[in-house]
Amino acid sequence: MMKVFIVYDTKYGNTKLVAEKIIEGMKEAEGIETEIGDVEETNPEQIIGFDAILIGSPNHFGGPVGGIKRFIDKLGELDLVAKWVTVFDTYEGEDFEKAVKKMEKRISEKVPELKLITPSLSIKVDGTKGPITDGELPKCKEFGKKIADQLKA
Q1: Which of 110, 22, 10 is nearest to 60 (CA)?
Q2: What is the residue range of 132's domain?
Q3: Total structural domains within the chain
Q4: How far, in Å, are 30, 58, 121, 137 from residue 82 at the CA level?
C-alpha cells in the first residue's frame, strides 16, 4: 500500500478544493492510501513514513505562501522515508506555474532526496477569491490518477 500525504495552504478554499479533487483521482486507483492536511495544522513530522508528498499553495506575489516555504524548509531537517514529491498551485491572471516552479526549486535545494514524480499542476482561479475557472477541476482529478499510476509503476 503506497501512502501519500497532501499538504496545502489556502485562504479562500480554492487550493484546498484542488487538493480534494486530486485525492478523488487517486482514490480511483487501488493500493493508494491518502491523508490531507492544512499546512497550519500539519506538523512536518507527520509526513515521516509516507511514500509521496504533494504540496499545494496559492500563488502569492509570484511564489508560494510563507507557510508552504517554511514547511518545505522543515522537511529538509527530517529523516524522510518519502521518495516522491510533486507540487500544485492556484493562480490568477498570467501567473501560470510561477509558484510551482519556485516550490520545485526550493524542494531541490532543501530536500534533494525527494524526486519529482510528475510535472506540477497549476490551476487558474477567477479573481483573488475565486472560484476556480470553469474546466480546471477535471485537471485535478486527472493529476491524481496520473500520480497514482506513477506510484504503482
Answers
A1: 10
A2: 2-152
A3: 1
A4: 19, 24, 20, 27
Q: What is the pLDDT of residue 135?
A: 97
The helix (run of H) or strand (run of E) holding residue 27 is: helix 14-27
Q: What is the CATH number of the domain that holds 69?
A: 3.40.50.360
pLDDT at 82: 73
In total, the chain counts a number of residues equal to 153
CA–CA distance, 50 with 68 (Å, rounded to integer):
18
Q: Which three cell numbers stand for residue 83?
A: 521518495
CB atoms within 10 A of CB 26: 25
Cell numbers given for 67: 507557510
Choose among 53, 97, 58: nearest CA to 74: 53
Mean pLDDT in each 10-residue stretch from start to end of the chain (153 residues)?
96 97 94 96 92 96 96 92 92 92 96 94 95 97 96 87
Query: SS in 3 state form for 35-92?
Result: EEEEHHHCCHHHHCCCCEEEEEEECCCCCCCHHHHHHHHHHCCCCCCCCEEEEEEEEC
- Backbone CA torsion sign across 60, 61, 64, 66: negative
